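Form 7-S
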Amino acid sequence: MSYAIIGSGAIGGALAKQFARSKINAVITNRRGPASLKQQAFAPTVSPAETVDALDAEVIILAVPFEATEEIAKARADWSGKIVVDATNAIEFPAFKPLDLGGRPSSEVVATRFKGAKVVKAFNTLPAAVLADQPRRSEGHRTIFVSGDHAEANEQVASLVTSLGFSPITLGRLGEGGLLQQFGGALAVHSLIKQR
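Output:
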């Protein structure tokens, strides 16, 4: 599998650190271009790329503000064959409350933007500092929740979660588990340890 992290802020940087720690090759991109990532890249495992090139990856992790997903989605008319991992949180600023999406899970909104993609919600519930920290604890492994409407895509993302050193907990479909893990949901901002 080929991986791309779209966004180099707190969450994107935390994910890049985990990819590098686990020696899993990936590219990282942002809207400012590869030159702005020279200091942040975790060479040789995670390398900076142009966004257009990063979107060729099989698994694309969205580590950008929720509103930015719409513009990224416009880069292609058809996202078939791609797994798009939604690590965003739909937050209304400055009130810092969930965006009003008419009761729809935020990842279902993302899925309508990325036509043809298999969208999986993951990596959005841990604060960036915790996500960047060592996932293996003396008492077990930190957990990452995974939700999506395509069982095979959920399994592939859960496998990535395991490869990064976390323990995946698959919660089902976006309309079920996705609601639990989105910002304002019951599982948001919970750092759980799965004992082994």
